[in-house]
Task: inverse folding
């Protein structure tokens, strides 16, 4: 079998301020937290905004984003 192993560019929407953000996680996207200055693609997937309080403390300077893999 032939599989396409070409890395796909992930669509990333950074969240400038989690405390000021209003709304939910867009359909088809993951909410991720990662170290500011690093790649969002290497971030930790959160299953809800409530987990931001739990996992955000594990980062010196956390950044949040919505990440879409594949086609929109």
Result:
């Amino acid at each position: 079998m032939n599989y396409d192993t070409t890395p796909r560019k992930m669509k990333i929407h950074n969240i400038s301020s989690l405390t000021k953000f209003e709304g939910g996680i867009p359909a088809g996207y993951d909410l991720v937290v990662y170290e500011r200055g690093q790649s969002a693609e290497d971030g930790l997937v959160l299953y809800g905004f409530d987990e931001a309080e739990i996992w955000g403390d594990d980062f010196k300077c956390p950044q949040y984003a919505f990440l879409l893999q594949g086609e929109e």
Summary: The chain has a mean pLDDT of 86. The two ends are 26 Å apart (CA to CA). The longest strand covers residues 62-68. The longest helix spans residues 50-55.
